[in-house]
Amino acid sequence: xxxxxxxxxxxxxxxxxxxxxxxxxxxxxxxxxxxxxxxxxxxxxxxxxxxxxxxxxxxxxxxxxxxxxxxxxxxxxxxxxxxxxxxxxxxxxxxxxxxxxxxxxxxxxxxxxxxxxxxxxxxxxxxxxxxxxxxxxxxxxxxxxxxxxxxxxxxxxxxxxxxxxxxxxxxxxxxxxxxxxxxxxxxxxxxxxxxxxxxxxxxxxxxxxxxxxxxxxxxxxxxxxxxxxxxxxxxxxxxxxxxxxxxxxxxxxxxxxxxxxxxxxxxxxxxxxxxxxxxxxxxxxxxxxxxxxxxxxxxxxxxxxxxxxxxxxxxxxxxxxxxxxxxxxxxxxxxxxxxxxxxxxxxxxxxxxxxxxxxxxxxxxxxxxxxxxxxxxxxxxx
Amino acid sequence: xxxxxxxxxxxxxxxxxxxxxxxxxxxxxxxxxxxxxxxxxxxxxxxxxxxxxxxxxxxxxxxxxxxxxxxxxxxxxxxxxxxxxxxxxxxxxxxxxxxxxxxxxxxxxxxxxxxxxxxxxxxxxxxxxxxxxxxxxxxxxxxxxxxxxxxxxxxxxxxxxxxxxxxxxxxxxxxxxxxxxxxxxxxxxxxxxxxxxxxxxxxxxxxxxxxxxxxxxxxxxxxxxxxxxxxxxxxxxxxxxxxxxxxxxxxxxxxxxxxxxxxxxxxxxxxxxxxxxxxxxxxxxxxxxxxxxxxxxxxxxxxxxxxxxxxxxxxxxxxxxxxxxxxxxxxxxxxxxxxxxxxxxxxxxxxxxxxxxxxxxxxxxxxxxxxxxxxxxxxxxxxxxxxxxxxxxxxxxxxxxxxxxxxxxxxxxxxxxxxxxxxxxxxx
Lengths: 382, 428
What we know:
The complex is a heterodimer of chains A (382) and B (428). Chain A is of the alpha/beta class. Chain A has one domain (37-379): Zn peptidases (Aminopeptidase). In chain A, 31% of the residues lie in helices and 19% in strands. In chain A, strands 1, 2, 3, 4, 9, 10, 11, 12 and 13 form a nine-stranded mixed sheet that branches. Chain A has a two-stranded antiparallel ribbon with strand order 5-6. In chain A, helix 4 (241-253) packs across helix 8 and helix 8 (333-349) runs antiparallel to helix 10. Chain B has one domain (51-427). In chain B, helix 7 (119-136) packs antiparallel against helix 8 (141-157), helix 9 (163-171) crosses helix 18 (344-358) and helix 19 (364-376) runs antiparallel to helix 22. Chain B has 428 residues and is mainly α. Classes of the chains: A alpha/beta (382), B mainly alpha (428). At the A-B interface, helix 1, strand 8 and helix 7 of A face helix 3, helix 9, helix 15 and helix 16 of B.
């Protein structure tokens, strides 16, 4: 099998090496674009009143690392509670980032404080995941020919920053075992540790942020596959369950149906468990349905990210495989962002009911119907 | 028709181009897969997306590293003489006890597959060593090749390393944890059955006739046992067991080297066995031996990325899960081995994941284990036949189809056993 006659010549080896070098050069240009994007990509325009800080202001260990990310804080005139909105834990869940950006660019806080982190794991925004076939960016259309551009990244930290992972990841603190790749997943690394891998350090940074800013309500925004049981759902820590139940009922009156799930006590590393256990904050996690990240999806492109229109999912819905209503075969980004925004607003408005003197009053953020009707782009700055 | 068009057409074109490149133009499987992937991208209007093609191939980077490093470990064992010494010792000890000899040879051939997750590794290391022994013991060449090929496939499916199971589990975010016992249940009964079918009758006949004392065999064993079997000679195996076993048994205290580094450290300990060998030569042989499998994984990665990009994957997956129950089981038992003509890994990726999704609600670990076993049969399917063809080569059988014929009964029993396990998974 490895006889000399089967081996190539020096000429063929050289030719193949040259072709390989060209392919590496061409593909590397494309990948590097995600690491040093155009200034217009992932640009945010904070509303008046937001002050920009860095996560490393709360945990020194993140300074000058690829994990350090922007933290925006707005203080209202009246004292009240503090809400944290975390977007972009997983960079392949765009409604999470867009909802956080929408709050960042529209909110005026009258009472209490709002902290917004639109890109929680920026190390997930610098690459796409092999065999997922995702585009690197997507456009949110605005009036006329204008649009805002965001990166569509991966669920996990770029291996350039953290590789290799062990075969089995043992969650620090709980000792829970997970697949090795989960070590790169921010939402399995909470509460983090100061001397851990870069993803664990990032998680630790958020723990310190919540503790130092005395956050009352911590909301982690996500998306999930339509075939995943926890979708269009709110997962709440037991201390946040009362607030979550109030909000679920409020949303029912607005015809926004949401599944309420208790945070499993044995499932560690996730925000709704660890923030609830290690801080005073009421911790909740929100999930909308994103066909572009599902296993059953058909053609994978920007259109799928934005419209959620997919005939493979439509057929899967007929087969009873989905956990969302999908009769019309679409799950547009506007609806997913609107859902996140509506739930966050209700959580903030009702905080006073479970924490006296910690009310939050905000304005400027559009309601569900407006976002669905006009699209997300209508509420993003130029 | 609305469901079929255009993704169904893309599927037919991609599979067709692969078949033509492979069968008609005799291109290596990796190259044929690449051509099919590029064609799929072109006809779906994606041009030649170099970034997607390269990115897809990176999906198996870790797997390729494991295979290459594991092969370096196996070559180290060969070069220090440990493999031959063990084979000679086993044969001498059990040549009058055909059942134990059959089982020992089966386990011996399975071992490299269990460690590397590659049937090819098992055939070209352990298979090449036991082939002359079996031939000297008068087992017919075709049966010898079939026995080696089947044992190598069971070794690939057996724990601790089962790459198809890792691939299938990865498809639904299921960690490769807790697979040990299900994989043993999947493989051990079949390994015993196949050994009894293909080797035992001849070994028993020879043991009864007393011909196992023949001079030819003794000379062969003497040649093989030129290095005495001592605990020191087996040092690399002990080191590997300590590194991999320690990580799994005491994960909180044992350092995690990762499989590739663990294999390299264990191979490095071969320098302490007291035998003279050339690590450079062993590594070079190992990399050469790993290249075909690694190349296929690179090709499969590109193929799958383009399937995802074009919607072929979703078409395939949803078509699979829409099959009625009886057709689903029939589909698993037939399409997975047949698709294995690309490679068992490709079969696990493209078909294993949707079939597992279609069977959600049963024990996913047990179903995933059984699917990985059935996917392993793909390594018998021409044109690649990664286990079968190499087994025929090490035994010297020119017509592979004779070997394939001898594998039919064990392969059918394997598929049936796999389906039985899937049916039983609903009770766990």
